[in-house]
Amino acid sequence: MYTLINREISMSTSSIKLDYGNLLNILSEEEIFSIQPAINECHNKLYNRTGSGSDYLGWVTLPKKIREDEISEIQSAANFIRNEAEALIVIGIGGSYLGAKAVIEALSHSFYNSFSENLQVFFAGHHLDSRYHTHLFQFLENKKFAIIVISKSGTTTEPAIAFRFLKNLLEKKIGKEKSKNYIFTVTDKDKGALKKLSILEGYKSFVIPDDVGGRYSVFTPVGLLPIAAAGIDITEFINGAIFSQNRYEMPELENNSAYFYAACRNLLYRKNKKIEILINYSPALQYVSEWWRQLFGESEGKDHKGIFPASCSFTTDLHSMGQWIQNGERTIFETILEIEKLSEILTIEEDNGNLDNLNFLVDKDLGYINGQAMRATAMAHLEGGVPNMKIKIPELNAFHIGGLLYFFEKACGLSGYLLGVNPFNQPGVEDYKRNMFALLKKPGFEKEREELLSKMPKPDEEKIV
Ligand code: PA5
Q1: Atom of ligand 1 nearest to the CA of 156
Q2: Ligand 1 in contact with 217 (CB < 6 A)?
């Protein structure tokens, strides 16, 4: 029988901790530790590069390999953008934008784009909506803006379209020659249309390592350049990842909370808990959830297997999804993100009339009230049949967000191997692209077009009520 002190796995108070106490009515510690041999096997696959997708394991040891000169080069491009532009447009989709968006949203002022002295940061090319893009281009008419365009393959349609529009807009505003200084690309070292374009136009270009896939690329220039441009300390961000890299280097579950998390979710899945909801209690973490959904969804959802990763923001969603979670189908579990130390204190003041009946909260901090809401909800959900675990983040800062993202990457790589899938490919993503190219008459997709059209209902055959 293994017992862990306080059911929290941590060597240091400053690391990410996992509280799994609210799983123990469905998973015993014996069960969890019984899969240590499988964990060891998967750990060896990650470090010895013997598992499937092993060409994409560069992220495992990446944080410690980032060189000072690489950081300086990124920082100097970021400084140029911060000094010379009023707005920055980050173009990318999937793993080529979610990491940067998650970190910027988590660590910037909640209204960072509304302060005139700040560099405003916007994203484009992560969907094909003409309304959003039209509004963005209208807004940029009177702005001095820079572009960071990110695509590992350099051929993805959504960002390529957005880049064509924005490049034209910039060139019309300040001329082709000057525009070159305001365009930065992040792509493969020698393949793809974006690389070719960067060379021909002379854009400053940053490289995504061959052995790091999109959703594991937040510690490459994919994440680091936009994050630095948003004014976030990337050295601290990387230091947090290095801390986690060291922390989660050994396979033993009692010392590795990332693997412990992976083990628990794998065992829950085997017990028919098919949906994981990542819960935050701060809107700052909403895009961390989006990034996490992509990381786990694209890594594990294959071969007709995989936990469906969902997310909720509480207490907001307790008034929309709370009912389903409390009483709906019992196939879910929750992973709660808790920020342990809050930097903002907001105390409830006394009101003589007490017409809102809130005087029982006088002198209580809003963070404390949010914390009690978290504890109350976790218990209610547990009693309603929803096991939950908590990931404790010591503080919302660059160091701990770096640590948290690496924690999830490590858990995800191992978790994919535990599930028996290749966590580093995304073959299913190609299916929609093939159909889209066929319908759009992209050269080379003639046969696919013919096949697709023969299967699709003709406009007059559509079943419409
Ligand atoms: O994780 C992944 O590999 C994907 O989500 C990609 O990041 C996404 O499809 C964008 O690809 P690219 O960077 O090649 O434009």
Answers
A1: 15
A2: no
Q: What is the DSSP secondary structure assignment for residue 361, as one 8-state letter?
A: G
Q: CB of 233 within 8 A of CB of 108?
A: no
CA of 97 to the centre of ligand 1 (A): 9
Q: How far is the CA of 465 from the centre of ligand 1 (A)?
A: 38
Mark whether 195 is an active-site residue: no
Judged on CB neighbours under 10 Å (0-12, 13-18, 19+), 142 is exposed
C-beta 290 within 6 A of ligand 1 = no
In sequence order, which residues have a C-beta less than 8 Å from that of residue 315 and are 6 or more positions away? 281, 370, 373, 377
Beta strands in 246-349 (DSSP E): 275-280, 308-313, 332-341
Give the Å distance between the CA of 128 and the centre of ligand 1. Answer: 15
Q: Is 189 a catalytic site residue?
A: no
| Cβ neighbours around 331 below 10 Å, total | 13
What is the rounded distance in angstroms from the CA atom of residue 53 to the CA atom of residue 46?
10
Is any atom of ligand 1 closer than 6 Å to the C-beta of 426?
yes
Other CB atoms closer than 10 Å to residue 432's CB: what's the count? 9
Strands ordered across the beta sheet of 120-124 = 120-124, 87-91, 145-151, 183-187, 204-207
Residue 319 known to be catalytic: yes
Using one digit for the tens of pLDDT, what is the confidence trace for 102-125? 999 999 999 999 998 889 999 999
Question: How many angstroms separate the CA atoms of 70 and 220, rounded?
Answer: 10
Burial of 175 (0-12, 13-18, 19+ CB in 10 A): exposed
| Residue minimizing CA distance to atom 8 of ligand 1 | 94
Q: What is the pLDDT of residues 39-53, one digit of tens each?
A: 999 999 999 999 999
User: CB–CB of 158/199 below 8 Å?
Assistant: no
Mean pLDDT for the chain overall: 95
Q: How far is the CA of 251 from the centre of ligand 1 (A)?
A: 29
Whether 94 lines ligand 1, by a CB cut-off of 6 Å, is yes
**Amino acid, res. 234:** I
